């Protein structure tokens, strides 16, 4: 995950933005910027803590 999702500047890619429906935050790509990153970052950190 760290090699595929984290940008060289530390930003996180493949994070879906917020919306009324899942389609509101689509398409999700490496370069897409969500309007609210806390959920995606929290999931990324939680997954890392479970692996460690």
From TrEMBL:
Name of the protein in its database record: Uncharacterized protein
Single GO biological process annotation from the record: carbohydrate metabolic process
Superkingdom in the source lineage: Eukaryota
Organism: Tanacetum cinerariifolium
Gene3D superfamilies: 1.50.10.10
């Amino acid at each position: 995950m760290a090699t595929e999702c984290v940008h060289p500047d530390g930003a996180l890619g493949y994070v879906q933005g917020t919306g009324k429906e899942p389609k509101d935050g689509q398409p999700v790509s490496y370069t897409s910027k969500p309007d609210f990153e806390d959920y995606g970052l929290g999931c990324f950190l939680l997954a890392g803590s479970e692996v460690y």
